[in-house]
Amino acid sequence: MRISMDDAEKLWDEPLAELGRLADAAKRDRHGDVVTYIKTYYLNVTNVCKYACKYCGFRRNVDDSDAYTLSIDQVAAKLTHSPEQLTEVWMSSGLNPALKFEFYEDLLRTIRQVVPQATIKGFTAVEIDFFATHFALPVEEVIERLIAAGLGRIPAGGAEIFDLAIRKKIDIKTRPERYLQIHRLFHERGLPTSVTMLFGHVEQRTHRLKHLQTIRDFQDQGGGFQAIIPLAYQDQNNPLAKRGIRGPSPVEILKTLAISRIFLDNVPHVQSFWVDSGEETTQISLHFGVDDINGTLIEENIAHESGAGTATYQSSAALQDWIRGAGFVPQERDASFQYLSHDA
Fold this sequence. Notes:
Blueprint: H1 5-11, H2 16-31, E1 34-38, E2 40-43, H3 72-80, E3 88-91, H4 101-114, E4 119-122, H5 125-134, H6 139-149, E5 151-153, H7 164-170, H8 176-188, E6 193-199, H9 205-220, E7 225-232, H10 239-242, H11 250-263, E8 269-270, H12 274-277, H13 279-285, E9 292-295, H14 302-305, H15 316-325, E10 329-333, E11 339-342
Parallel strand pairs: 1-9, 1-10, 2-3, 3-4, 4-5, 6-7, 7-8
Antiparallel strand pairs: 10-11
Helix pairs in contact: 2-11, 3-4, 5-6, 5-8
């Protein structure tokens, strides 16, 4: 039975164990004892960015001493020497005005040649919006050209919190309706996506619920979100951190994941981004509605530059151990959440 916003508000006051029980039941109804993961390389091609989001410690100005943009040859070398047989290549980067659109097309073609078995999941809705604006192209043309070059999915990033008053306090990026429009354009092309929620900064719990309500309404209208990824704000090396804004506690992370699972009855998967949450909280979250722990995330830099203290890579064998250690059955998946091989 679908719960209302009022019911969801009351869930925050439930004892933690009871909230976990409710979310775990909702998850098991869908996925049983299975928890999935994927072998993925997380490429951050450039840290040069025209925006300066207040929660981000990754972006740099073009003249900063540690600003970088990987060449296509450097990207090819990284993927060639990957420690895993990749199922997915995930790209999320800064918005670098110096790069030409053809660079991104050539990058996709090269990745497709180097790792033909992998799905390329690249360019958030924010990046797609930037391409359309910066290169004066219709967003539909941007999408078609990227797909033609090899793009198979787009990442979920950029949703943050949809509330406009909160967005004005943390970033100046793509507006919520534009974010959703771009995702819908991919859905119309038969390419499902996921959606994020950045929490634990200057927003309140009610803003998270309104964010979830927007997602649920979008899904009711024929949306194609396969998963939500609640992202815990990282409180180091960014403007919000310098103001003393601290990130969410493990309990707050678990409550947010659990309520996401209970409330979003029309989104199949809830993912834990272990880079943000850490190994222990991620394992516990599997009892709080989470059915996917994302993946190996080889070389993730964005969260780490903002203070994440986790490793920049976990092997697929380690992720299997995490899942088994929490009492669940590990299952490798592809970028479409289809099972690949049985790991149990």
